[in-house]
Amino acid sequence: MSTLAAQAHSPLDPNQHRIKRVLCFAAHPDDIDFGAAGTIAAWTAAGVQVSYCIMTDGDAGGFDPGQRDEIVRLRTEEQQRAAALVGVTDIYYLHQRDGYLEPSHEVIREVVRLIRQLRPDVVLAMHPERNWNRIQKSHPDHLAVGEAVTRAVYPALENPFAYPELAEAGLAAYKLPWLWLYAGPEERENHVVDVTDHIEGKLAAIHVHVSQHPDIEAMDRTVRGLMLRTAERGGLPAGRSAEAFHVVTVNGPGTIAGF
Q1: Domain spans in the chain, listed from the N-terminal domain onward
Q2: Is the pTM value of this prediction over 0.85?
Q3: pLDDT tens for each residue of the chain, 259 residues long
Q4: Both ends of the chain: CA-CA distance in Å?
Q5: Is 3-7+17-249 in CATH node 3.40.50.300?
Q6: Residues with Cβ < 8 Å from 81, sequence gap 6 or more?
Q7: Do the Cβ atoms of 57 and 141 come closer than 8 Å?
């Protein structure tokens, strides 16, 4: 199925399904900015409350050997400044080691803990499937984020007997309505967001991550081109820019209860 045809079958009707709170997961500082900052800027501009969870400290990133001792501090500060540019100030960290992230029960439990705590309408995470057309989207840590969050969302999140210590701490089971996945294979895309009005905010957020992207001009051209092509794939008018997602209905009107 083409992306345009898939878009016609998106399970989400923005006019019907109101989103008030979103929790976004990423492997490293800057992942969210590349994958979804335009959509996030649109959400926050509309009054949606958005939180981030960064699973690793990005300690293996960067290019300057002289920054090794301060790279975690630099990247944390970069992510905070970038998030603020698109209206996000609420950021959580799991402090996993960069390059070693796995969908372990330790990680899944912490994902469940945070979702139960915030109880969002949408959880946004990196896709668990590898993108063979652009493998740079599929860093092993990215795939681990997708797998850990997907496992957390179902069934552990809504199973009161999974990780019972969470329920004992007052974090009751929760049925998540929507899971949005980004940075996945194009053939999985079924929802495109027009972010034309938020291109500059997205790029400004990406520009903050100077420790990771020394060639700003090349990065800028690449991101603008990708957003134009995404909009074209999604059937938007010429000249528009978009971000694409694989939207999954976790609990909707037709969902059958059970684990």
Answers
A1: 3-7+17-249
A2: yes
A3: 344 444 546 776 666 678 999 999 999 999 999 999 999 999 999 999 999 999 999 888 766 777 778 889 999 999 999 999 999 999 999 999 999 999 999 999 999 999 999 999 999 999 999 999 888 889 999 999 999 999 999 999 999 999 999 999 999 999 999 999 999 999 999 999 999 999 999 999 999 998 887 788 888 999 999 999 999 999 999 999 999 999 999 998 888 876 5
A4: 30
A5: no
A6: 208
A7: no
Q: Which residue has 């705590």 as its token pair?
A: 117
Pull the structure tokens for residue 100. Answer: 């070693």
Phi, psi torsion values for 70, nearest 5 degrees = -125, 10
Residue indicated by tokens 């090794």: 68
Distances (CA, A) of 244 to 84, 169, 183, 207, 241: 22, 37, 8, 21, 10
Query: Which tokens is 153 given?
Result: 């969302």
